[in-house]
Amino acid sequence: MKINTRQLVFMALLIALSFVGAQLKVFGTIAFDSLPAFLGTLLMGPVAGAIIAIIGHLLTALTSGFPMTLPVHLAIGLGMGLIMVATWYTYVFVKKASSEIVALIVSVIVAAVCNGPILLLLCSPLLIPMLTWPGVIAMMFPLALVGGINALIAALIFKALPLSVKNQVASVTSTQV
Question: Which GO terms describe its molecular function (predicted)?
Answer without folding.
Answer: transmembrane transporter activity
